[in-house]
Amino acid sequence: MGRWVEIQRSWHDTAVTNCALCGRLVPRRVWLVEFNGQELPFCNEECEGMYRDYWLPKYGPNAESATDAAASDS
Amino acid sequence: MTIDTVTLNIIHNALTNIASEMALVMLKTSYSTIFNEGLDFTTVLLDRNGDLIAEKNYTPSMMGAIPHTVKWAVEEKGIEHFHPGDVLVHNDCYRGGCHLPEHMMMRPIYVGEQLMGFAGNIGHVAEIGGKAPGSFAADATDIYQEGLRLPPVKLINRGEYVEDVWRIVLANHRTPRNTWGDFHAMIGSLEIAERRMSELAQRYDPELLSQATSLLMDYSERRLRAEIAELPDGEYSASMLVEDDGVTADPFEIKVTIVIKGDEIIADFTGTSPQVRGPMNCTVVVVASAIYNAVFSITDPHSTIPRNSGCYRPITFIAPAGSVVNVVHPGPCVGGNTDLQPKLIDLLLRAFSQAVPERSAASSGGSSSNFLFGGVHPETGAYYTNYHFDGHGTGGTARKDGNDGEITRHSNCRNTPIEVFEGRYPFRTLEYRLQPDSGGPGEHRGGLSTTRTLEVTADEITLSCLFDRSKIPGWGLFGGHDGGLSELRVKRHGDDEFRSFVEAYHTVSPSKFTNVLLKRGDIVRYVTPGGGGYGDPFLRDPEAVLDDVRNGWVTCKSARDDYGVVIHDGGYEPVLDLNATTELRRTRTQAA
Fold it and tell me: Do B320 and A23 touch (CB under 8 A)?
């Protein structure tokens, strides 16, 4: 379950936040979601959903390609 | 409130015409040739949420920045930050900039007390400081070498100059007079937008205008979704190597997977190389531009869908931060916009070619061939700089040959006429022509590149170049051949032959270098890269090959070797030997 957080930065802080999925700038309000003990910043729920439904199955630790590679190694 | 179709069309055209008039103001009042000759800028109108409602897009390379940059600046600063008469500027690559030279300016538009929307523009400011005159350091290793970076700051506050910001900017640009003129051209275009929008709001109720723009966005979304739904569902992948980053000689890799599912598209760059040391990284809005450009080329090549935020909704992308397609601080990125972006479009079209081969294209030359120089002008004694680009060939398609000498696959800019170029800068143009045989052979030939030869007429000129495809050519498609390579050579005064810049100046890259000192009488010759061919060149109509030979675009040797077409040099008029051609093609096909 994620939560909306207002990014609080002083005017002299030059850092920026990028979405953990699409890479876009997240200028002010960030959608934070915990995955495996780490809180990831997303643009919104849509990016989180795509991360969960598209990116993780394709590239994550349990991805099909990773499973195939492990199977062929054995 | 209901809006009939006629009124909706009138409002759409009115908004588009305002964006066009904004562009005209920039063209007519700017100082630099990159604006008034090159047209390297875009003007936009946005609603009060920062969503795009109309544009005059001379430069598709800014397409990705348009729906993001103004909106992000508004979100970051907060709407309470803006007042009537404000103008805000920024060129921060990590906040939605394309690269440092491209500055975004925006102005809130009020009707009475009510915020109606924003006017914005993005323009390539020709000189913004940094280590190289012309602000294109091809060997930059961080953003600070590329010029002055401005986060979103006000240039004008409630109608008054913010003098401290102007002083900082003008003190850090090499040609402050040009910056003053070009910045005011941008500000003037915003002022005309405000005036025209106020007039429109007198004719139509602002709430009706707001509703109309919302309907137009929905319409564009529906239209694009319908086009995408016609494409075959599936995953289509492609990858390419880029020859170097200007700092090391090592190539790097770009990977993309396009997912078409129903009426939506995902462009996924996962697996692409981490960002490189040199300035060939691109920003997230640049990769967005490449994606939108490729998708619109496939789905709406004649631009019949109104370009507003609605038509970006069905397209999502993944550009991992810290990769070469989404640079993070402090990575440099000036060449990512000009020389990676066209190659990203080509790569996306290559992936799309698996789904819709008849709508795709072979690779373009993929480079803006950036040629930057500066010094003290011998006639005026004034310091000058210039950012100059040149045309490459675009790729052949299923329907036609590639375009010759186009600036470029992604920027759609104009070349600078020789008369203007020589009138302003101390070079003499010895040669400017299309380069024979530079278009990749194919049933539809790749577009030809250009050659330019320039002699230095000042005591000294400091030259920087950021070219590409001097080692890895643009690819052909479906049996078409690769396009021609780029080449940069110099004949120093007193020398009797042209040499590469690696030989003459010991640069790391033959195509990317910074601050080479040219002397009076030195001659520089460059060839830009050509486009790849589409389809088997043996299927090209021999008469079309004969036309190419007549025009000097293809040599008799290439006609024979690459197209299997025998053409005799008949004095003034080349002659096609149809029988010999049929026989040659037959034997060559059998041998293959």
Answer: yes
B370-376, strands of its sheet edge to edge: B383-388, B370-376, B460-466, B512-519
Give chain B's length: 592
- Report, in angstroms and rounded to the nearest whole number, the Rg of chain A calculated over CA atoms: 16
Q: Kindly list the averaged pLDDT for each block of 10 residues, start to end, along chain A of length 74.
A: 94 95 97 95 98 96 60 36
Helices (H), B144-283: 163-172, 176-203, 206-229
Q: Do A25 and B266 touch (CB under 8 A)?
A: no
Question: Which residues on B lie below 8 Å from A59 (Cβ)?
Answer: 270
Half-sphere exposure of A6 (CA within 13 A, CB side): 6
pTM of structure: 0.96
CA distance A24 to chain B (A): 6
ipTM reported for the complex, 2 dp: 0.93
Best residue in A10, A13, A16 to probe B by mutation, most B CBs within 10 Å?
A16
Which one of B72, B270, B323 has the shortest CB-CB distance to A27?
A: B72
B241-275 per-residue burial string, b: 16 or more CB within 10 A, e: under 16: ebbbbbbeeeebebbbbbbbeebebbbbbeebbeb
What residues contact residue B29 under an 8 Å CB cut-off, 6+ apart? B181, B184, B185, B188
A58 close contact with B: CB closer than 8 A: yes
Give the residue on A whose Cα is nearest the Cα of B315: A22
B329 chain-A contacts, CB cut-off 8 A: 14, 16
Nearest to B440, CA basis, from B373, B371, B368, B535: B535
Length of chain A measured in residues: 74
What string of DSSP letters covers A7-38? ----TT-----B-TTT--B--SEEEEEEETTE
User: What amino acid occupies position A14?
Assistant: T
Retrieve residue B38's tokens: 């090159």
Q: Is B327 on the interface with A (CB under 8 A)?
A: no
Alpha carbons within 13 angstroms on the beta-carbon side of residue B44 total 34
C-alpha to C-alpha distance for B232 and B97, rounded to whole angstroms: 34
Q: Which two tokens stand for residue B199?
A: 């007039």
Does B328 touch chain A if contact means CB atoms closer than 8 Å?
yes
Q: Say if the Cβ atoms of B68 and A24 lie within 8 Å.
A: yes
Q: Do B94 and A16 touch (CB under 8 A)?
A: yes
Q: What is the pLDDT of residues B246-283, one digit of tens each?
A: 999 899 999 999 999 999 999 999 999 999 999 999 99
Q: Does A23 contact B at CB distance below 8 Å?
A: yes
Transcribe B380-400 into DSSP letters.
T--EEEEEE---BPPPPBSSS
